[in-house]
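Entry for iron/sulfur cluster complex. Fields follow.
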Amino acid sequence: MSSGATGERALEWLEISADYRCNNRCIGCFSVQPDGPSMSSREIAEHLLAARRRGARSLWLGGGEPTLRRDLLAVVRKARELGYVRVLLQTNGMLLAYADQAKRCAEAGVTEVSFAIKGATAETHDRLVRTPGCHALLVEGIGHVRGLGLPMSGDLLVYASNLAEVPDMVRTYAAMGLRHFNVWAFSAVDQGDRDLSAQVPRLSEVARVTAEAADACPEVSVTSLHTPPCVMPPSHERCLFHAADLDLLVANPGGYSFRLEESAIEGGAYLPRCAGCGARPRCGGLRRDYLAIHGDEEFQPR
Ligand code: SF4
């Protein structure tokens, strides 16, 4: 689909990562750059307008941690004025532990909140975000958002060390009112001199625990991002995610924008045997950094 004179493909979602500041220090996060590039409020407004012109109706505010932005509420109001009908706030939830802040977000026009979650327990979550007390604030924030009646989802970042907790994470936070879960597989790309390859989970294991979580909590939906169809049990194809379906443009600071399916984090590498795979049209491919760590034996054409 194209959008008129520009010839560019139309959009449904605009994701804005305005900067890389965060009040967590999650293991392996390459986003924490307090002095890194940052979008001005004017640049954000320009992205909002440009994406609306291409048809976007849904805004995803990511980061970094978007609740640290002083212009957060103004951005949300501007988006709603321009006609965005969905404004998703993706957050670690810490500042939403302030009831007033959660209320202000809803009043400005946030329509849904996605919480970044690393563990079913405070011990696991706080260890992986390297921020003592973060879990308690997250749970308070969830309570405030639930009280406001906004739909809630969870972004579960899965490392080798919290993989086994995924079904418990889904159970625990579903009981708090979250209704959808995205299972993200940790990538060790862009880690500089640090070797975090031991924390990269096998994708077949990520698919297995995703399917297990979906079975344990049939009242919620669970999708596994970056998971090629060939490692998901055929009975759980509903747990697969195909990035291109979102029609999402990511806008990062420094003038760097790309469609989600073109991101290196989505994969992009295929094996010679993938050419004969029936799932190839709906497969985003494999991450090269992953193949360097775990090899390719898991991936067999269907
Ligand atoms: S195309 Fe390759 S990686 Fe993708 S599902 Fe098929 S065999 Fe797996």
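NOTE: The pocket of iron/sulfur cluster is lined by residues 228-230, 270-271, 274, 277, 279-280, 283, 286, 299-301 (CB under 6 Å).
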